[in-house]
């Protein structure tokens, strides 16, 4: 177990180290000081907080009050349903392994910048929860839970997201790794709930290359995961229609995310993870600069 | 009225047939696409799949389309293989009511029935004239570019125009000049020639895409009911007819609807006596009434050398032969004489006369080989024989010049100078002597062999009975001896052989009681056609006759001499019967010389001449007043000439251009089987000889395009279409498969 833990840690470290080496500013600080409310000026208050625009309109002194400024809190959600077990012919890792590595990498990165990170694994239920913490030793715990995960059940993202949105009391970044093979509207409703709770949400849509390209040629008996039926077919003749259906699903997810200002990231498991994360984080940093 | 043959193997309206039915086994290959499909379905991989929801959705929206595409693909593959296999089986179909595509060039083969029943002339024109008219209509109605060939259904068949003529004018010129031969009709040989010509034309004139065969015939029963030698020959003929009718449109044009009675002289023979000047010769003739009504007071003329010498008026019963009273005549001068019997001319003229050539001689020359010379009168082997032959002369009958010699003379003498050779009690023969004898007999000479106490049986059997120089008609066996008190009577075998003609109805001469004490048991070579003329009452043959080429060889089981007193062989030479017997033996042995002058239509005329005449010319005058030149060719020690074109009955004269060459008169007669004007009915034809053959029977020529009942078989055409369709399907399959594949990229 320890070696496996170390394996995941090593993978996470190797993914992050290369990126962090040249980093000066955290791409994940996320929250700045945010305005909360106005209150009337009282003698002794710091004049630097007077809202002069309001004074101009009303000739009264009001002070701007701000939310308490905290460190970043990241909630990492990893889908551990059976479908995440899929590992394609051209992929080194299954979707779950890929998601685990990505999650561990981000956790490592977040902890390095002294922020807090928590972890939730789920399928149709919440399988494990680790409250956010900024302790360096916290990483071991996270990795252990990730490694312990056994994917064997059906997914039910909508209700899970609703439940977690209620649970996460402090605002933070919700980072989701899932193939999202579930009812799209229900899933989007769950994501929307996070947004409603003013969380910043990033969805890493984790799919295998085979699922995206459907490269099969010879007749195949597809045994459905997550209690889906078995289908015997000639994949060559069905490829076009399948890709159309999958694209429709991805577009629906993407559009839903866009509507709710949720960040949507495609994640192909045949792409080297360091490249995938690096390019994403670089992209996010560039965006936050403007 | 048109009749159409039906294909027996495949009933209409399917009307399909195959040229190479064996290839139909390849139809089983059509199962290959199915089997490959099933095999592929069995060869699948298994996979756990997460994105099943989208796969199921794709399947749901595409299942019908996929199914249809798969079936179309499978059907295209299967059909392509099926069509390919069908094309390989060389299919043909009989199209009913369809016409060929216009503009196709046609090979029209016209087959004219040349059997002499086509000479039947009920009115102004004969059936053959009518056939020529129809042939003319066919040619005149043809298009530019069509090719014509012309064949005579004869015996043998005659390809008059064997390479397609593209000029109608040239063809019609030949047609107009065409004369009708008087042979029979050999349908099997003609159809063989037809098929050969079709193949040859296909190879050399590929642009003649269509083939039409017009057989213009009177449907005479003799021609259209051929007697096949074996069932295999019949099957071969039938298969050939089916093949021909599959490739070409076959039309029978019937010109024999108008019939009638017919009288024919069916036989004319002379008595087996040797014709010499001054000797009386009897002629026997036979007339046949082929009609269903008896004929009264029919005049029959006997003519010699073109002049009427006798006349008979006879009543003829319906449908049967009548033997005319013998007509006797003495020829006053030597040479070839024309004898003719004529019946009053009717609608079928060629068989109203029959011809006979009689080569009349001043005397006959005979060589007697004496195997047992003796100084004592009547003890040598030939004394009695010589006396008998001389006695003939003395009696005022045929003068016979006799030379007596030994077997050495067989090699030394010019045997061609003799009409017959008698071998008497010769001990043995050398192969060279046997060869000379064989050659002599083959050219029409007569050979009469008497045995005796000198004969070396083993030598005879080795040299004269077996081998290439066989001249005796029976094998010699053991010697049989009878006590003079207990001799066997003779069995004349109902006098059916002409050797006993002098004794027939002449019982008082008691020929059957001729005493013969010793004889060799003979075993006739019946496989070679040997026939026993006279036998002993116990069954052993006394006289056996065999034919070798043109000549005859007669073998007598006993001696021509009485034999020594202490070893008597027979008393026959001492009896009066011996003279007529010897004379008759001589006469029938040399009838080959007469036979060679009297042949049937289509048989060759030929004769031998001294070697000095080789390379000289012989002029042949035919009954149709044509003159043809032929050349004598060297053949061993002699020169020979041979004339094949005896298509017409009548007298032919061979006139030598050098004195040595043997010319003379020849009589050519009809094989009168064609005189029977009975016809096969369309039904008999359809269900009998032409069962399974596709053809049309018409009375008038109509263009094939206008014939509503026309059945046409076009093997090659259908094969081409099937191949094209198969190719199209393979292309379609490739495009469809490519599209499906590109759809799935």
Describe the protein's architecture and organization.
The complex is a heterodimer of chains A (290) and B (745). Chain A contains 9 helices and 10 strands. Chain A is α/β, with parallel strands linked by helices and 290 residues long. Chain A folds into 2 domains: 2-25 and 71-289, Rossmann fold (3-Layer(aba) Sandwich); 35-66, no CATH class. In chain A, strands 5-4-3-6-7-10 form a 6-stranded mixed beta sheet, sandwiched between helices. In chain A, helix 3 (95-112) links the parallel strand 3 and strand 4. Chain B is of the alpha+beta class. Chain B has 5 domains: 20-43 and 50-89 and 720-743, no CATH class; 106-259 and 677-713, von Willebrand factor, type A domain (Rossmann fold), CATH 3.40.50.410; 263-361, Immunoglobulin-like (Sandwich); 388-418 and 432-594, Rossmann fold (3-Layer(aba) Sandwich); 597-669, Immunoglobulins (Immunoglobulin-like, Sandwich). Chain B is built from 15 helices and 37 strands. In chain B, the strands form 8 sheets. Chain B has an 8-stranded mixed beta sheet, sandwiched between helices. Strand 8 of chain A pairs parallel with strand 3 of chain B, so a sheet runs across the interface.
Q: How many β-strand runs of chain B?
A: 37
Could you tell me the strand content of chain A as a percent range?
15-25%
Characterize the overall form of chain A: elongated
Quaternary organisation of the protein chains: heterodimer
Terminal residue distance of chain B: 68 Å
State the helicity of chain B in percent bands: 25-40%
CATH fold-level label of the largest domain in chain B:
Rossmann fold
| CATH homology superfamily of the largest domain in chain A | von Willebrand factor, type A domain
CATH architecture of the largest domain in chain A: 3-Layer(aba) Sandwich
Average predicted confidence as pLDDT of chain B: 84
The main sheet of chain A comes to:
6 strands, mixed
Provide the low-confidence segments of chain B as ranges.
Answer: 1-14, 95-102, 706-714
CATH class of the largest domain in chain B: Alpha Beta
SS strand fraction of chain B: 25-35%
Named CATH architecture of the largest domain in chain B: 3-Layer(aba) Sandwich
Number of self-contained structural domains of chain A: 2
């Amino acid at each position: 177990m320890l070696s496996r833990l170390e394996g995941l840690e090593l993978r996470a470290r190797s993914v992050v180290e290369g990126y962090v080496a040249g980093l000066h500013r955290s791409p994940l600080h996320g929250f700045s000081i945010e305005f909360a409310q106005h209150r009337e000026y009282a003698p002794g208050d710091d004049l630097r907080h007077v809202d002069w625009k309001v004074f101009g309109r009303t000739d009264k002194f009001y002070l701007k009050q701000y939310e308490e400024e905290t460190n970043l809190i990241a909630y990492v959600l990893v889908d551990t349903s059976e479908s995440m077990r899929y590992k394609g012919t051209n992929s080194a890792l299954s979707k779950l392994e890929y998601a685990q590595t990505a999650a561990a990498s981000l956790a490592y990165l977040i902890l390095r910048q002294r922020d807090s990170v928590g972890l939730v694994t789920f399928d149709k239920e919440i399988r494990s929860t680790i409250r956010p913490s900024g302790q360096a030793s916290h990483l071991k715990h996270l990795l252990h839970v990730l490694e312990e995960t056994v994917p064997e059940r059906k997914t039910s993202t909508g209700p899970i997201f609703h439940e977690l949105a209620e649970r996460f009391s402090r605002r933070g970044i919700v980072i989701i790794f899932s193939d999202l093979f579930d009812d799209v509207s229900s899933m989007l409703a769950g994501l929307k709930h996070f947004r409603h709770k003013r969380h910043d949400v990033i969805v890493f849509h984790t799919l295998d290359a085979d699922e995206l390209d459907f490269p099969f040629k010879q007749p195949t008996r597809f045994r459905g995961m997550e209690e889906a039926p078995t289908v015997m077919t000639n994949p060559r003749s069905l490829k076009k229609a399948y890709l159309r259906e999958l694209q429709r699903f991805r577009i629906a997810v993407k559009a839903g995310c866009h509507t709710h200002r949720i960040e949507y990231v495609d994640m192909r498991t045949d792409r080297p993870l360091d490249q995938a994360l690096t390019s994403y984080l670089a992209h996010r940093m560039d965006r936050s600069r403007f | 009225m048109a009749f159409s043959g039906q294909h027996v193997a495949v009933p209409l309206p399917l009307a399909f047939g195959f040229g190479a039915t064996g290839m139909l086994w390849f139809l089983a290959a059509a199962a290959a696409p199915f089997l490959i499909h099933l095999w592929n379905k069995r060869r699948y991989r298994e996979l756990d799949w997460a994105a099943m929801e989208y796969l199921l959705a794709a399947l749901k929206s595409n299942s019908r389309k996929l199914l249809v595409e798969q079936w179309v693909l499978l059907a295209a593959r299967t059909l392509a293989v099926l069509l390919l296999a069908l094309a390989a089986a060389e299919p043909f179909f009989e199209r009913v009511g369809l016409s060929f595509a216009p503009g196709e060039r046609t090979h029209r083969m016209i087959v004219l029935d040349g059997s002499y029943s086509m000479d039947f002339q009920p009115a102004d024109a004969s059936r053959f004239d009518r056939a020529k008219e129809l042939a003319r209509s066919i040619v005149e109605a043809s298009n530019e570019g069509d090719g014509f060939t012309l064949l005579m259904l004869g015996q043998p068949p005659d390809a008059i125009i064997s390479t397609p003529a593209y000029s109608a004018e040239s063809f019609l010129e030949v047609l107009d000049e065409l004369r009708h031969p008087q042979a029979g009709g050999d349908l099997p040989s003609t159809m063989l020639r037809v098929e050969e010509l079709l193949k040859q034309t296909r190879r050399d004139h590929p642009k003649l895409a269509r083939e039409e065969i017009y057989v213009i015939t009177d449907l005479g029963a003799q021609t259209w009911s051929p007697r096949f030698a074996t069932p295999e020959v019949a099957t071969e003929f039938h298969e050939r007819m089916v093949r021909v009718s599959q490739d070409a449109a076959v039309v029978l044009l019937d010109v024999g609807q108008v019939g009638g009675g017919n009288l024919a002289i069916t036989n004319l023979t002379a008595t087996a006596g040797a014709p010499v000047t001054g000797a009386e010769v009897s002629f026997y003739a036979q007339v046949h009434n082929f009609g269903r009504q008896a004929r009264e007071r029919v005049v029959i003329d006997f003519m010699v050398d073109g002049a009427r010498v006798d006349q008979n008026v006879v009543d003829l019963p319906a449908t049967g032969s009548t033997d005319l009273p013998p007509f006797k005549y003495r020829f006053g001068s030597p040479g070839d004489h024309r004898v003719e019997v004529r019946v009053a001319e009717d609608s079928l003229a060629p068989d109203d006369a029959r011809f006979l050539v009689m080569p009349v001689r001043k005397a006959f020359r005979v060589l007697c080989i004496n195997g047992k010379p003796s100084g004592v009168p009547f003890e040598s082997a030939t004394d009695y024989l010589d006396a008998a032959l001389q006695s003939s002369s003395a009696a005022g009958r045929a003068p016979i010049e006799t030379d007596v010699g030994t077997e050495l003379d067989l090699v030394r003498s010019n045997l061609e100078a003799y009409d017959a050779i008698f071998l008497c009690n010769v001990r043995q023969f050398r192969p060279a002597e046997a060869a000379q004898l064989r050659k002599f007999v083959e050219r029409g000479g007569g050979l009469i062999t008497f045995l005796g106490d000198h004969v070396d049986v083993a030598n005879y059997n080795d040299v004269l009975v077996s081998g290439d120089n066989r001249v005796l008609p029976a094998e010699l066996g053991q010697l049989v001896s009878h006590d003079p008190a207990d001799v066997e009577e003779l069995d004349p075998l109902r006098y059916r052989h002409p050797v006993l003609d002098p004794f027939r109805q002449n019982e008082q001469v008691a020929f059957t009681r001729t005493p013969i004490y010793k004889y060799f048991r003979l075993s006739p070579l019946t496989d070679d056609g040997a026939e026993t003329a006279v036998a002993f009452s116990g069954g052993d043959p006394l006289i056996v006759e065999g034919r070798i080429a043109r000549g005859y060889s007669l073998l007598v089981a006993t001696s021509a001499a009485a034999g020594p007193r202490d070893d008597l062989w027979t008393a026959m030479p001492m009896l009066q019967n011996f003279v007529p017997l010897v004379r008759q033996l001589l006469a029938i042995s040399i009838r080959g010389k007469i036979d060679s002058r009297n042949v049937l239509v289509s048989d060759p005329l030929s004769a031998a001449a001294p070697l000095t005449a080789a390379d000289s010319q012989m002029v042949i005058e035919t009954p149709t007043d044509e003159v043809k030149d032929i050349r004598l060719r060297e053949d061993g020690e002699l020169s020979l000439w041979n004339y094949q074109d005896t298509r017409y009955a009548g007298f032919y004269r061979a006139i030598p251009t050098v004195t040595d060459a043997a010319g003379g008169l020849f009589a050519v007669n009809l094989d009168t089987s064609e005189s029977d004007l009975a016809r096969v009915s369309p039904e008999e034809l359809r269900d009998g000889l032409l069962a399974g053959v596709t053809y049309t029977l018409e009375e008038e020529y109509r263009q094939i395009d206008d014939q509503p009942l026309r059945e046409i078989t076009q093997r090659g055409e259908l094969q081409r279409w099937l191949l094209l369709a198969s190719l199209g399907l393979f292309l379609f399959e490739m495009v469809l498969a490519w599209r499906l594949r590109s759809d799935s990229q």
